[in-house]
Amino acid sequence: MGTGKYRDNETMVRAIEASGAEMVTVAVRRVDLDRTKEEGILYHLDAERIFLLPNTAGCYTAEEAVRYARLGRAAGLNDWVKLEVIGDQRTLLPDVAATLEAARILVSEGFKVLAYTNEDVVTALRLEDAGCAAVMPLASPIGSGLGLVNPYYIREIKRRLSVPVIVDAGVGTASDACLTMEQGVDGVLMNTAIAEARDSVAMARAMRLAIEAGRLAYLAGRMPRREVAVPSSPLIGMLDGGAGADD
Amino acid sequence: MQATGDDIEITLNGEPRRVPAGLTVAGLLAELGLHPGLVVVEHNREILERARLAETAVGPGDVFEVVHFVGGGY
Fold first, then answer.
1. Catalytic residue at A158?
2. Candidates B32, B40, B71; nearest CB to A26
3. Which residue among B38, B65, B74 sits closest to A40, beta carbon to beta carbon?
4. Quick one: pLDDT band at residue A169, thresholds 50, 70, 90?
5. CA dihedral A102, A50, A192, A164 (to 10 degrees)
6. Contacts of residue A58 in chain B, CB cutoff 8 Å?
7. Which of A10, A206, A224, B42 falls between 20 and 30 A from A108, CA-CA?
8. For residue A38, how many other CB atoms are within 10 A of its CB?
9. Alpha carbons within 13 A on the beta-carbon side of A157
10. Residues A70-81: pLDDT tens digits?
11. By C-alpha distance, which of A124, A136, A191, A194 is closest to A167?
């Protein structure tokens, strides 16, 4: 789960708990020197109980993302990074060329890189080849709540990659999360869907159930889709005189 | 922090600031009310490991970025 945009820290903590999330992302920003007495996010999140994943939120170039990743690692929690290099301010879609460049640098420096990307299968394969520990294709734009707009490509990415595939960005409500997990992916990362729900804790709970349901449905092996109807009841044994009674 | 005659000028989080001469980076953090375990310091574009905060001097014209984790998904 992302930790941004909550109305207050207490809601954030309760939502994270209700969601069952095992990992949360945090951003790296300048300390506000006029407010140094306020408690930072580490006061509210226990790094011993939940894995804190630094991200490179807000970065628009590979150089910036690498700088932020290094700062995140220097905090001393771990050497993981959720790599984001944004290419367009309106859609917040990733700059995949810059993401690949930053990924290569960070992998060579020993980071475990989880890379935010779009649904392009070729880019996902290149990120895996570059050594990323996970690939994170978006469902739809960050904060849009549009849900999974391209299930075909997400399914194909999951089929083709060996590293974990975690869908990140665009989930809006529980059915989106369920549908995403039904594609076979390894997880979902979300923030706005919970933070901007009227009742964040209830939505977090819904997401937890939805993700479990989607995963179970995937593992259960769904029935095929068909363009014709197939009746569920036997055709024999109908009474005489009915429309479907002829042999 | 009281400005005195023995001040030097540094850049701190993008803003110019006068600080007492002779501080170490650890001392600067203490003056700012910051816990060294909760922030990361970049000194002239190089990340300063925590172990070196007390041995690194704050010099005139130095550029510091002091950052920490905040909530944020994107």
1. no
2. B71
3. B38
4. very high
5. 50
6. 72, 74
7. B42
8. 9
9. 32
10. 999 999 999 999
11. A136
Q: Where are the domains of chain A?
A: 9-220
The 10s digit of each residue's pLDDT in A179-216 is: 999 999 999 999 999 999 999 999 999 999 999 999 99
Q: Which CATH number fits domain A9-220: 3.40.50.300, 1.10.340.30, 3.20.20.70, 3.20.20.20?
A: 3.20.20.70
Task: State whether residue A21 sits within 8 Å of chain B by CB.
Answer: no
pLDDT at A235: 86
pLDDT confidence tier of residue A46, bands split at 50, 70 and 90: confident
This prediction has a pTM of 0.92
Which residues neighbour B20 within 8 Å (Cβ) at sequence distance 6 or greater?
B1, B4, B6, B7, B8, B31
Q: Does residue A23 belong to the interface with chain B, where contact is any CB pair within 8 Å?
A: no
Complex ipTM value: 0.91
DSSP structural state of residue A91: T
- CA A27/CA A4 separation, integer angstroms: 9
Tokens 């150089």 locate to A63
DSSP state of A40: -
